[in-house]
Design a protein that fits this description.
single chain, about 150 residues, 6-stranded mixed sheet, 4-stranded parallel sheet
Length: about 150
Amino acid sequence: MSLLSAIRTVVHRKIVLPGVNFLYGRVYGMDLGKEVRISMGAKLDKTHPEGIYIGDYTAITSGAAILTHDFVNRKHRDVHIGRNCFIGYGAIILPGVRIGDSVIVTGNSVVGRDVPSNTVVMGNPARVVEQNIATGPWGIRLDKGNDTPIEP
């Protein structure tokens, strides 16, 4: 690892991640679990931010959108995302959805219904394509040869 790469890693872990979590958790009032990683390019709904609940060790990637309001029907609905989940690039989580623990939402999926734990969902609308999976922190699969969980 080069010196520049090491500095970048330290800055990201010590400044960027705590800053993003402070912004969403303290300023906007979202309920964030321990060691949540939210990309700066993610779009979390700020019209009803206190309705977003994200569990421990979950990763929200760039371009993902989590919505808590339905403008047409004038409703605000909470979104719950479980522990050890991964929300892929460009995925959209619609208002009122509950996502279980250890769920992987693949890129560009549109989740409009509740998702059971230990599954992979994909598509528009998102459908369960795999069940009984095991994930570690940030939705990293443990059942595909990655048997050792990553230490946070």
